[in-house]
Known about the structure:
Helices cover 0% and strands 43% of the residues. The chain has strands spanning 7-13, 17-23, 27-32, 44-51, 56-62, 76-81, 99-101. The strands form 3 sheets. Strands 3-6-7 form a 3-stranded antiparallel β-sheet, with no helix packed on it. Strands 1-2 form a two-stranded antiparallel ribbon. The chain has a two-stranded antiparallel sheet with strand order 4-5.
Amino acid sequence: MRWLKARNETYLTEEEGYRDYEIRPALELLVQPSEDSDPMKLNFTWEFVDFTQDELLVQLYFEIPPYLSSEADDDFLLVTFWGNSLFTSEEGYPVKQGTTLR
C-alpha cells in the first residue's frame, strides 16, 4: 500500500505514553493551479518508475489531461522532499527536509 499524503498515527512510547506522529511520504507532489484553472479537474496519481543513485523518474497520471494548463496561465507541479536521507543535490549535499521545488 502506498500513501501519497501525510497522515497521523499514534504510538505507545516508553517515555511519553501515547504520542501522535505525522507520517509523510519521502516525496510529495501537488499541482499548484493557475487562477483560471479548476483544481477539481487537475486530480492525478503518480508512481516511481525508476530510482537510482543519480536520478528519480516519476510517472504522473492525470484524470483529465486536457485540463492541465488549458487556460492562459500555466499550472505548476510542486515537489516537496520529506525524505532528506534519500535525496541529495548534484554536489552530494542532503536536500533539506521540506524543500519545495516549483
